[in-house]
Design a protein that fits this description.
With about 230 residues, this protein is α/β, with parallel strands linked by helices. It is built from 10 helices and 7 strands. It starts with a strand and ends with a helix. The relative contact order is 0.16. This is Aspartate/glutamate racemase family protein.
């Protein structure tokens, strides 16, 4: 198994899930006492969040490029960015060194296509839902993407930053997400992409009338496959 470099901390709540899932998948697939070969670089999310809010993406990209170089120096042979939103600066990571980055949106699109679906609803941060860096990547993977209306996008975003990133899981927020999922399905969504890794702390398959695609889980499974291919 090649060594996977995790760029995490955005938030650490979801990065911890990546660590857990990668080790569980490794144990399930390889058996016995096997665990994943991992190196983790965890940034301070407070610093990244300020750069996001102020649109200083180049600076944020520089921080993650530094993380990528540190992971390469530590022996990483494959990079995994443990956040959907910061794939906006994936190019900075890809240009930082020679270690390949496994793009989360590519792994997600592949899973949706494998399920025989093409039209999906997307939940995530406002950056992910409203900007084209993520939706276009899914579209390039053969998908048609729907997003909630403006008021619902604001709610989804607020729950992520004010609750889930702080480890708070609320039943009323789950109910709100279920309502938003229902609207997306009514608009024609055949599946729902949980396009923020923290959303998996709140929503699961039981909360949707159509298949959900948990991007952190799909990313972890793709990372194991790539590391052992």
């Amino acid at each position: 198994m090649r060594t996977i470099g995790l760029i995490g901390g955005m938030s650490w709540e979801s990065s911890a899930e990546y660590y857990r899932m990668l080790n569980e998948i490794t144990r399930e697939r390889l058996g016995g006492l096997h665990s994943a070969r991992l190196v983790l670089y965890s940034v301070d999310f407070a610093e990244i969040e300020v750069l996001q809010a102020e649109g200083r993406w180049e600076e944020a990209g520089g921080i993650l490029a530094d993380a990528a170089r540190a992971l390469e120096a530590a022996g990483a042979e494959l990079l995994v960015l443990c956040t959907n939103t910061m794939h906006k600066v994936a190019g900075y990571i890809e240009e930082a060194g020679s270690v390949p980055l496994l793009h989360l949106a590519d792994a997600t699109a592949q899973a949706v296509r494998a399920a025989g679906l093409r039209r999906v609803g997307l939940l995530g941060t406002a950056f992910t839902m409203e900007q084209d860096f993520y939706r276009d990547r899914l579209a390039a993977g053969g998908l048609s993407v729907l997003v909630p209306d403006a008021a619902d996008r604001e709610l989804v975003h607020r729950v992520i930053y004010d609750e889930l990133c702080l480890g708070t899981v609320r039943d009323d927020s789950r109910a709100a997400y279920r309502r938003i999922i229902g609207k997306l399905v009514a608009d024609g969504a055949e599946g729902i992409v949980l396009g923020c890794t923290e959303i998996e702390l709140l929503i699961g398959a039981e909360d949707s009338p159509v298949p959900v695609f948990p991007t952190a889980r799909l990313h972890a499974e793709a990372a194991f496959a790539a590391a052992t291919s």
